[in-house]
Amino acid sequence: xxxxxQLRYFVAVQQHRHFGIAAKEVCVSQPALSxxxxxxxxxxxxxxxxxxxxxxxxxxxxxxxARRANQILREMQDLTDYAKHAASPLSGIIRLxxxxxxxxxxxxKLLPALIKQYPGLQLSLRETLTAALVSELKLGTLDVxxxxxxxxxxxxxxxxxxxxxxxxxxxxxxxxxxxxRIGPDDLHGENLLLLEEGHCLRDQTLSFCGATSQNQSANxxxxxxxxxxxxxxxxxxxxxxxEICADTxxxxxxxxxLRFAEPQPSxxxxxxxxxxxxxxxxxMAFARCLRNVLN
Length: 295
Hints:
The chain has 295 residues and is α+β, with helices and mostly antiparallel strands. The protein has 11 helices and 9 strands. The protein has helices at residues 4-16, 19-25, 30-44, 60-87, 103-117, 130-139, 200-209, 211-214, 225-233, 246-249, 280-294, and strands at 49-51, 56-58, 92-98, 121-127, 144-149, 156-171, 239-242, 255-259, 266-274. The strands form 2 sheets. Strands 3, 4, 5, 6, 7, 8 and 9 form a 7-stranded mixed sheet that branches. It has a two-stranded antiparallel sheet with strand order 1-2. α1 crosses α2 and α1 crosses α3 (30-44). The chain starts with a helix and ends with a helix.
């Protein structure tokens, strides 16, 4: 008979393409995991995994079984979540994903408010790029994510939280009038310092600044806003900074912040979760708490 354990183990193998990593994720030994996968193949009468000494491949039948297993496991998790929610709203563990250009600036404000308002709630945090967060949310390994909207995935619900205006960070050595409002044309000829590929902030910056600035971007591939700002302070170029980061990151008098001309460019920050989740009311309450803290 098929078991949820077998499905969970196989989904881990399909995601990681590695028995050792999958075994570590589900907290069992590699031999025990391999035995469960073989039992699953025997029960289904299908070869799910091609094995050799160096790597594994998932067969086409295995990919389809993994897709269906994911759906079954998500529905099982939703059932458990419903029971917990019915007993005590907004309690237990919520697995929250946050993008790197938000986490360090929002969490110090959010966590104390959640502890005070919802003492029975425990957050499990994951900080990574939007594409990974969306994938994990759809797989069911995250419950809710906080990121820039829109993502426009039909199976996800999007709830806006606040508008985060963009600022331009320049070296103070340039003696620019801080009252000056900047337009996209003012960036012509500037070395535009950006985060590495995959960060949504990079894409939003290039979308606003236009193709001209893309060709004049400095040779920088930073993983954090703090690193980019150190380079701005040293005079290597300019960068676009979300306003929510300003209080935390700008403690250096070598950097001047300038506002853009109206309409000011911005990004819309919001919560996302699966439309099928039974915890919709919980996540709406979570969104209200975020608004109260951040607006």
